Amino acid sequence: MNGHNDAVEIISPNNVLANAMLRSVDMVRPRLQATSVDRVAFCVGTQINGAPHMGTSLVQTAAFLLAKATKRTFNVDAVVRFGALDNAPYDIRLDPETHHAYQQTYFHALCSEAIDDLIGKYYRGTFDSLADATGVDYEIETYSAQQADPAFRHEFLATLGRLDQVRWPLAPSHGQVHLRLPCPQCGWAEKRAERTRLLRTGSGGADFSAVCTDHGDYEIAVSTDTGTYLDLATLYRNLIKERLAARDHVTLSVMVKGGDWAYGCQLVDEAFAQLPGPPPPPRIFTPMVLTDTGAKLSKSLIRDGKVPPPPGTHPWMLDVTEWPGDTDSYVDALVWLVGKMLADPKHFYRSYTAQELDRIMTARPGPVTGVRAREMNLYRRYFDLVATGRKTIEVRVQYPNLRTLKAGDHIRFVCGRDEALTRVMRVARYPSFEEMLDAEGPARVNPDSPREQQLANIRRIYGPEKEALGVLAIEIKLLDSIT
Ligand SMILES: [Zn+2]
User: How far is the CA of 211 from the centre of ligand 1 (A)?
Assistant: First the structure.
């Protein structure tokens, strides 16, 4: 179906990694072979301070497309997990005496509704659109929710017994890890934790002392279930997040990160080596967007007038809200671009200048049809019923990205390389599968299977917690099938 893409040529030299594999998604295969997980989660983390730039969209789009390729290639379930870093600094000020920087996070400065609005404004629309375009579901979790999780806090506390070993990889120049424990009275914390001390640590938790500009010395206890906020700087946070992920035997976490992280992860690996337990989870580094000098394209350097915008830079590359079109058209363009990169490991495991991206995007063919279809995966036995027009009701639970589904939309059902394009005639919502089958009639859901059998099959796919989201009956009309 992507034959028209071939008009635009990308030329990439070979490299060590690309030379070792046939498909970009083969990065996931070694760990899948070594474990028996049911599901793969592609994890992306993004600071929520301000509008995303193109590099952020590249990472996110790659995560969705890798999840889609994982489902098809390895026949396991795959989702995208989005970590919204609401511990990004909202405000910074200097202590008048020591000149140490103090910072307040977005979480401490804003109410949870305002954080949710920020995520909604910059990301939820894009993620809904990516989910539709790829047939991959996603989950969003804030850093603040993550650090409150007892398992995350336990993983952190477990590193304190070896703090003397891990503090050097986490802060190789001075050994002072940026472990921020905000003042309980005002929520501000010393940015580089110069005066934060570990007083004692044991099986139940740890006690620290720190200094607030306004409120003086304070002591703070961290345990698995206290509410004290644990603001870990980037490397430490990634160490804890990855160690927690590596212990999950049901879901394989794959970290998807911008290419500049390849350098930073060397230190995370060094910290892993100092601790007992599992090795780091697999990581996939996505192409960096570079200027003509070979430096990473930086919105802030250009905004502050320190460097001119490099050749080929469009405003939307620095701030994706400048894209001249709606969210779906932006996502379609990104899916096309990243799809081209992923098509060959040589094109994916490399970086691109803004100028080269401009060239590729300018040569991009327009949409083949005027139809933008959501993609949904189906098991073979159901796909064949749809592709022959015998199944006219598709059943789903109400995932967030399906809340806007309506009559007139198009759905492309996919099974392996086979596709069936359908039009949505009607969407009905029910509190349970039983009520749905009673109202719609089991024969329209599956003409070959009795009601009780269908109910059992559906419940094997969707557990009670998924059914509780609400049940959708989607009436479809077959337009075209390619098998
Ligand atoms: Zn204070």
Answer: 8
